[in-house]
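Course assignment 3, question 2. Fill in each field.
Student: A.L.
Task: Predict the tertiary structure for the chain below.
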Amino acid sequence: MAKEKSSKESKAASAKEPKNPAEPATKEEQIGFHKGSLATLAKERQELARILQIVEQLMQMHIGALKDLGVDLQKEAQEVIAPVPKQKKPIEDIL
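Answer field:
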C-alpha cells in the first residue's frame, strides 16, 4: 500500500510540474525571471565599474610616485612596446 501512495503522489506531482523545470511555466514567471536577472546584472556591472575606478586610482598613485622618484615611464613603455631586436645568427652557424 505504501508503494501505491508514493507512486500516485509522484504521478500527481509530475502532472503539475512543467515539462522543462529549468524554464518557468507562465509568461508572468518568465518576465519576473528576466527582470530579476537584469537587476542582478546591473548591480554586478556597477560593482565592476567601482572596482575599475579603484584600480585606476591605485595605478595613478604608483605612477605619481615613480615620477617623483625620477623614473621615466615613457622611455620604459617604449622599451616594452618595441624591444631592441636581437641579431639573428645565420642558419649555417646554428647547424
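Instructor remarks: The mean pLDDT is 79. Residues 31-70 form one domain.
Grade: pending
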